[in-house]
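Incident log, support desk, overnight shift.

02:14 A customer reports that sequence design results differ from what the structure should imply. Their input is reproduced verbatim below. On-call engineer (initials T.W.) acknowledged and began investigating.
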């Protein structure tokens, strides 16, 4: 078998792992993504006559810990009913014992791909605010994402924004004993992840049943907070997601240091090394970005007097120009009347 081409081996693996959905209302259409723990298929729901995404535990991950993690992920998504979070429709087990769950089929492009078409900074920042809205909703329901990054955000063809991959999420009211039964270990995205179609591509189980204990690194380099990089999941809270959102914001800003100082200050505060120096909540981060969009003073940046004057002039340019034109006209009339 080792002499077979890689493409043949992958095909044989696909055939071996193809789920038996007999007795369900789903029919497999095609595979659309593969992560370390699960494979995602486009399936047709024959009862409702619609396509869905069906995530199935891989045959290499069939022990109880993996199944528990898969069910946990589905339950986390089920408790987060928000337009910016993919809804779960159904959950079950295959005849071979593998866990599966169906969810909304996400169409569109990953955020890091979509930004190439969103050339205007205000448009990018409005997308960012919608990401923040979904994350803030999760925080309000006691769920910390822990792996926010552009690859885990999808932008749909009608502008809808969805935050994906809640596989390593931290549930704040979950006991340590419960958390330790779930496998969560971070790797690079799957090698055949098609533009973010696999919501689990950034997370992969690596055989550590105590993955939430100190020493385990959960997240993606470049986006994970320092406390995550140090392997301190016990210190992770909503401010860790604020740090990751700062990384996402950095990717939406003009390259080469061309961002306005207030916007750069917002990014820097979100990504402060110490959690206490960051925005205390995602809502606070959102409010500062909204202030920047509205040309108002932001909390993260201390303006100088001249900056305040120029911002005021920029914000009220039209009425100021009208007043100036009026004054010039009055002066001209006064001058001509005097001659």
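02:41 Re-run completed on a clean worker. Output:
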């Amino acid at each position: 078998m080792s002499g077979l081409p890689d493409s043949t081996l992958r095909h044989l693996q696909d055939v071996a792992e193809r789920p038996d959905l007999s007795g369900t209302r789903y029919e497999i259409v095609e595979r659309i993504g593969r992560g370390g723990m699960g494979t995602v298929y486009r399936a047709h729901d024959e009862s409702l006559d619609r396509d869905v995404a069906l995530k199935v535990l891989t045959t290499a991950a069939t022990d109880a810990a993996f199944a528990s993690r898969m069910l946990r992920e589905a339950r986390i998504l089920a408790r987060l009913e928000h337009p910016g979070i993919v809804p779960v429709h159904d959950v079950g087990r295959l005849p071979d014992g593998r866990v599966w769950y169906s969810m909304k089929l996400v169409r569109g492009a990953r955020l890091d791909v979509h930004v190439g078409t969103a050339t205007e900074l205000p448009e990018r920042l409005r997308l960012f605010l919608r990401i923040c809205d979904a994350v803030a909703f999760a925080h309000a329901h006691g769920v910390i994402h822990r792996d926010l990054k552009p690859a885990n955000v999808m932008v749909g063809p009608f502008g809808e924004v969805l935050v994906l991959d809640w596989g390593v999420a931290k549930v704040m009211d979950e006991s340590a004993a419960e958390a330790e039964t779930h496998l969560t270990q971070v790797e690079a995205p799957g090698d055949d992840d098609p533009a973010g179609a696999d919501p689990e591509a950034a997370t992969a189980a690596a055989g550590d049943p105590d993955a939430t204990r100190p020493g385990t690194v959960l997240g993606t380099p470049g986006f994970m907070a320092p406390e995550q990089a140090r392997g301190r999941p016990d210190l992770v809270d909503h401010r860790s997601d604020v740090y990751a959102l700062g990384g996402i914001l950095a990717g939406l800003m003009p390259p080469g240091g061309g961002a306005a100082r207030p916007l750069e200050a917002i990014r820097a505060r979100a990504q402060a090394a110490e959690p206490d120096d960051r925005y205390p909540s995602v809502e606070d981060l959102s409010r500062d970005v909204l202030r920047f969009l509205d040309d108002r003073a932001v909390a993260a940046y201390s303006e100088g007097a001249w900056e305040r004057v120029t911002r005021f002039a920029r914000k009220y340019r039209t009425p100021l120009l009208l007043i100036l034109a009026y004054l010039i006209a009055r002066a001209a009339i006064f001058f001509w009347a005097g001659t």
